[in-house]
Structure formats: C-alpha cells, structure tokens
Design brief:
The structure is a single chain. It contains five helices and eight strands. It is α/β, with parallel strands linked by helices. The strands form two sheets. Strands 1-8-7-4-5-6 form a six-stranded mixed sheet. Strand 4, helix 2 and strand 5 form a beta-alpha-beta unit. InterPro entries: Redoxin, Thioredoxin-like_sf, Thioredoxin_domain, Thioredoxin_ResA/DsbE_sf. GO terms for molecular function: oxidoreductase activity.
C-alpha cells in the first residue's frame, strides 16, 4: 500500500510541476518551427513571426468558449495591429474547413486564420488538445505566456503593451 501512495504522490508532484510551468510561464521557449496554412491558400512560418508580437490562438468552431472569446481577440488585434502586433487563429484538425471559412467570413475576422488539417501545428505547439489555447510570442520568437481557456484580456493587453515596448 505504501508504494501506491508514494507513486500517487510522485504523479501529483509531476503534474503540479508541469502545471506551474504552463500557468506561471517560468521559462521562455522558442516558438516551435511550424507552417501555418492560411485560408487564402498562402502559408506563414514561425520564422515569419519574428519582429512582431504575435497571439497564436488554437480554437474550433464547436468550442463555445472559443466563439465567446473571439470578439475580444478581434478587439485585441484591432487595438494593437498598427503597432507591430499580429494574430493567427489556428483551427483544430477536427474542425470542418467549410465551418472555419464560414465563421471567418461571417464574423469578418481581421486577422490570419489557419487550418491545421493534419494536426501537425497543434502537435508542434505542445500537443494542443484543449481549446481555446493561446500563446503570446515576443518579437524574438519566444513564447512568453500561454493560456488554456479564455485569457484575462485586461492583463493580456498590459502584457502586449510591455512586449511591444521591448526592442
């Protein structure tokens, strides 16, 4: 019985450590090399993000939180876009492309929308499975913050202001 409790304790500690890293963002990691295939058929790579502060949002049309937060993501993009801020919304592989196109057109999304039809982008970005998952990437191409669920948008805006001010 003691061994089971010890193993359970180790498992809990491991999950807590991973959770603390994800939610406290104690380290800065380079954004993973990936290629985003955009709705217009063009593509953009992680390297193309350098020099801008970028919000990378993994979402799905079937995700109620994703749909609910989209007006805030649009507002965030519009507030900071002219100052070197970019947004890429990455639709999950299980999301039918026709739904994604319809959503982007009817909501007039003002930013880049990518379809991750193979799941390779979600896998590269930490095997994203929960939506929404959002990453903030600084001008040097480093992930400085990640969110699972809707971000606290006032705090997110403060972070973006800080990152835009960095040289």
């Amino acid at each position: 019985m003691g061994m089971k409790h010890w193993l359970a304790g180790v498992a809990v500690a491991a999950f807590a450590a991973v959770g603390a890293y994800v939610y406290l963002d104690t380290g800065r990691a380079a954004a993973p090399e990936s290629t985003f295939v955009l709705l217009d058929g063009s593509s953009q790579t992680t390297a193309d993000l350098r020099g801008k502060v970028t919000l990378v949002n993994f979402w799905a049309t079937s995700c109620t939180t994703c749909v609910a937060e989209m007006p805030e993501i649009i507002a965030t993009h519009q507030k900071f876009n002219s100052r070197g801020f970019d947004t890429i919304a990455v639709a999950m592989s299980y999301d039918p492309p026709s739904y994604v196109v319809n959503f982007a057109e009817t909501r007039k999304l003002p930013f880049k929308v990518a379809i991750d039809n193979t799941g390779a982008v979600a896998k590269a970005w930490g095997d994203v499975r929960l939506t929404p998952t959002t990453y903030i990437v600084n001008k040097r191409g480093e992930i400085v913050k990640s969110y699972v669920g809707a971000p606290d948008f006032p705090a997110l805006h403060q972070l973006i202001e800080k990152l835009l001010a960095e040289s």
